[in-house]
Structure formats: C-alpha cells, structure tokens
Amino acid sequence: MKTKLILAAAMLALTVPAKAQVGIDMSLITCGQFAALPEADKLLVSSWLGGYYSSTKNLTTIDSRYVKRNHEVIGKYCAEHKGDKLLTVVMEKAH
What we know:
Elements: H1 2-15, H2 31-36, H3 39-56, H4 64-80, H5 86-93
Helix pairs in contact: 3-4
C-alpha cells in the first residue's frame, strides 16, 4: 500500500508542469548571454541596467535621448566581449 502511494505521488509530480524562471540574478549574466537574447529581451535588460545605474547615482529622471544610445553601446560592447559580466561592464564603463 505504501509503495503504491509513493508511486502515485511520483507520477503526479511528473505530470505537474515545471514553473518558468521568474527571477534572474543580473550579476551573473554575461555579455555573450545578453548578445544571444531576442531583441525584445535585450531592450528589457538594457532598460533595467539603465535604471540600476541611475539608482546608484541617485538620479530620478530618464533622459530619453540616451535610452536607445545606451542599448546600442551595450550591444556593441557585448558583441566583442562575450565573457564579461554585463552588470560589471555597465558599472565600470558607464560615465
């Protein structure tokens, strides 16, 4: 009886769909991983990076002139430096 219960529980566990990853540790993303993302995801990550950088400088405004430019700069750098950690690059290279 106990074996049947364990087997039934195991079968049920195998039929439950896996949950999608909802949390991303941004400090672990490499430039290569960023470069391989679909464009919409790159824009999302670039936007997050811009907000993160701005918060470290206590900036509360967004200058729309730089949003696209920064996205392009990150993309170009990452295409050439795939092993670098994305967050480290942004924090060290941003001015």
